[in-house]
Amino acid sequence: MPYVSAQSIEQARKIDLLTWLQYNEPGNLVKISENNYCTREHDSLKISNGKWHWFSRGIGGKSALDYLIKVKEYSFPQAVEAVVGGAAIKTPPFSYAPKKQKPKRLLMPKLVPYPENAKAYLSGRGIHSVIIDYCIEHSLLFETANYHNAVFVGYDSQGVARYAAMRGTKSAYKSEVTGSDKHFSFSIAENINATEVYLFESAIDLLSFATLELFKGHDWKQHALLSLAGVFKTKRKDVVPVALSRFLEDHPKINKIHLHEYRLLKEKIIWH
Q: According to the model, what pLDDT value does residue 110 have?
């Protein structure tokens, strides 16, 4: 276990959640009233008078350290590092717009050795076991030790994990691991000569399409499959999602893009 000094722990415990979010995740804050806030990720997570409470989960605390451990599922050393490393010397002016920051290191939560709950959950959602096993074998699917959330990981061209989306296997919980970069969202692109890419809103939508292709007897790995990390539709036709923009740079042979939307209902896959 990494060593954390007593001085760092003391410093981390002094940083309240509102201050930490204002500096590190300003775009994740929503002002409800004069001194009350919630987060864009979880509208039932309220912040007020130096404290926070996540009503849908029945948990809360005072510091950013509590938030990172209880909500983001950081280990204690990871949480201390995130708070101390991101603490400003002086409180910056508040802004809803995300500020340009240096790339953050993806801080994965503690994981179980084998994602049994995640596999059972996806199987119950109709995903074929061949697809699930492929994701496990290629380090695309994991499971958190706390809450047993499924974790879908995206990598850069060097094989470094840069993005991770979490989905509750026992609840409707959805989130992203802190430090996630949407430029490198979840994808399956084994065929380096693929000329077509299929776009999906989420990792589960992508796996649904792969399952349908498998059922049809098609080679589900012949084309590139890319999740847009929740960014699926936009009113501006001139805006290209960052995940797609980066993907096309890394895969210059792609010359055709398909936009698909899939939804899973119990054990049936429904196509829109």
A: 94
What's the CA gap between 43 and 57, in Å, rounded?
A: 12
pLDDT of residue 100: 56
Instruction: Give me the phi and psi of 262, to 5 degrees please.
Output: -125, 150
Output the pLDDT for position 95: 47
198 membership: H or E segment, kind and range: strand 196-200
Token pair recorded at residue 66? 């509590």
* Residues of the chain predicted below pLDDT 50: 1, 86-96, 233-236, 262-272
Cβ neighbours of residue 49 closer than 8 Å, sequence gap 6 or more = 35
Nearest to 226 by CA among 205, 246, 259, 198: 198
Q: What are phi and psi of 124, to 5 degrees?
A: -65, -25
Residue 160, token pair as written in the block: 């470094």
Given 3-state DSSP classes, what are the helix, strand and coil percentages for the chain, each rounded to the nearest 5? Answer: 30, 25, 45
DSSP class of residue 234 equals -
Which sequence spans correspond to the domains of the chain? 6-86, 116-271
Distance CA 247, CA 226 (A): 8
Residue 97 confidence (pLDDT): 52
Element (H, E) at 157: none
Which CATH superfamily is 6-86 part of?
Answer: Zinc finger, CHC2-typedomain (3.90.580.10)
Q: DSSP states of 123-154 as a string?
A: HHTT--HHHHHHHHHTT-EEEBSSTT-EEEEE
What single-letter amino acid sits at 39? T
Given strand 36-39, what is the order of strands in its sheet? 29-33, 36-39, 45-48, 51-54, 59-61
Question: 33-42 burial by CB neighbour count: b if 16+ within 10 A, else e?
Answer: eeeebbbeeb
What is the reported pTM? 0.63
In eight-state DSSP terms, residue 223 is S
